[in-house]
């Protein structure tokens, strides 16, 4: 049985796909022959702190193949390399996206996780990491070409402005998110204590007693969508309103909303 990955830290799915593609120079879906030697040189240097001599490289190669080459073909496909590089646990694996809607908080968690560079967009490399994880539960032998084709298909279908990347609203078109939780309170000039607690508890996803991080972002997204469900909300929009809301209602300036602070945002009986 293979040991824990050879890398000293876990890597994201985005970085994993980038690494695989960088060594799979002929694009055939395998790291083999000279590609494998180049990959192992990098791994050896990271592990040992020096470049390997030819005998050291050959010994290291046999050691790694014996541990991770599951089908004994002398090369690595994506699923085998994933174990070597110790890729972080799939976030999408926690959500059964095809079985029903996810909460708006979970949707924002997904967005935040895959927007690795925090640009406000899911760009090509981030999308490849995203769709690699999306394919894994249904295909244990994912090929790089399958990932690229899926990215291209989804961009064709859902990238409304044809810029080759996804904004927040474009991702929401194919991830089934729950009906806007705030919508049930439409028309109420004030929230009862019961309604307010229901609202607070829904967005307090981790039960910390405070609305923070992705929870605030999800709450503000739902507030904006209640005002106009067809508007194209971007990450920049949410960051702008988040700053305004926290300046007005975060009385202790800790970047979170307590129950008392959130009650200032929503009129309560």
From TrEMBL:
<dbReference type="InterPro" id="IPR011992">
    <property type="entry name" value="EF-hand-dom_pair"/>
</dbReference>
<dbReference type="InterPro" id="IPR002048">
    <property type="entry name" value="EF_hand_dom"/>
</dbReference>
<dbReference type="GO" id="GO:0005829">
    <property type="term" value="C:cytosol"/>
</dbReference>
<dbReference type="InterPro" id="IPR051001">
    <property type="entry name" value="Calbindin_Ca-bind"/>
</dbReference>
<keyword id="KW-0106">Calcium</keyword>
<dbReference type="Pfam" id="PF13499">
    <property type="entry name" value="EF-hand_7"/>
</dbReference>
<dbReference type="GO" id="GO:0005509">
    <property type="term" value="F:calcium ion binding"/>
</dbReference>
<dbReference type="InterPro" id="IPR018247">
    <property type="entry name" value="EF_Hand_1_Ca_BS"/>
</dbReference>
<protein>
    <submittedName>
        <fullName>Calbindin-32-like isoform X1</fullName>
    </submittedName>
</protein>
<feature type="domain" description="EF-hand">
    <location>
        <begin position="237"/>
        <end position="269"/>
    </location>
</feature>
<feature type="domain" description="EF-hand">
    <location>
        <begin position="191"/>
        <end position="226"/>
    </location>
</feature>
<dbReference type="GO" id="GO:0005634">
    <property type="term" value="C:nucleus"/>
</dbReference>
<feature type="domain" description="EF-hand">
    <location>
        <begin position="102"/>
        <end position="137"/>
    </location>
</feature>
<dbReference type="GO" id="GO:0051480">
    <property type="term" value="P:regulation of cytosolic calcium ion concentration"/>
</dbReference>
<feature type="domain" description="EF-hand">
    <location>
        <begin position="11"/>
        <end position="46"/>
    </location>
</feature>
<feature type="domain" description="EF-hand">
    <location>
        <begin position="146"/>
        <end position="181"/>
    </location>
</feature>
<dbReference type="GO" id="GO:0043005">
    <property type="term" value="C:neuron projection"/>
</dbReference>
<dbReference type="GO" id="GO:0045202">
    <property type="term" value="C:synapse"/>
</dbReference>
């Amino acid at each position: 049985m293979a040991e824990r990955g050879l890398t000293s830290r876990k890597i994201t799915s985005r970085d994993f796909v980038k690494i695989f593609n960088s060594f799979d120079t002929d694009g055939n879906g395998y790291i083999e022959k000279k590609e494998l030697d180049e990959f192992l040189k990098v791994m050896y240097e990271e592990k040992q702190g020096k470049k390997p001599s030819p005998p050291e490289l050959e010994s290291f190669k046999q050691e790694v193949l014996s541990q991770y080459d599951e089908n004994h073909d002398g090369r690595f496909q994506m699923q085998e390399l994933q174990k070597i590089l110790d890729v972080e646990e799939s976030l999408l694996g926690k959500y059964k996206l095809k079985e029903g809607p996810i909460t708006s908080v979970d949707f924002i968690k997904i967005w935040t996780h895959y927007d690795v560079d925090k640009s406000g967009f899911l760009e090509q490399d981030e999308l490849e990491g995203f769709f690699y994880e999306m394919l894994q539960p249904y295909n244990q032998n994912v090929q790089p070409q399958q990932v690229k084709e899926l990215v291209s298909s989804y961009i064709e279908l859902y990238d409304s402005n044809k810029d080759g990347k996804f904004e927040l609203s474009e991702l929401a078109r194919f991830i089934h998110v729950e009906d806007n939780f705030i919508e049930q309170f439409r028309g109420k000039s004030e929230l009862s204590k019961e309604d307010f607690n229901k609202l607070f508890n829904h967005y307090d996803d981790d039960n910390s007693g405070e609305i923070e991080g992705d929870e605030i972002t999800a709450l503000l997204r739902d507030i904006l969508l209640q005002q106009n469900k067809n508007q194209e909300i971007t990450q920049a929009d949410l960051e702008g309103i988040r700053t305004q809301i926290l300046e007005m209602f975060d009385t202790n300036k800790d970047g979170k909303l307590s129950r008392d602070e959130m009650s200032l945002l929503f009129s309560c009986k």
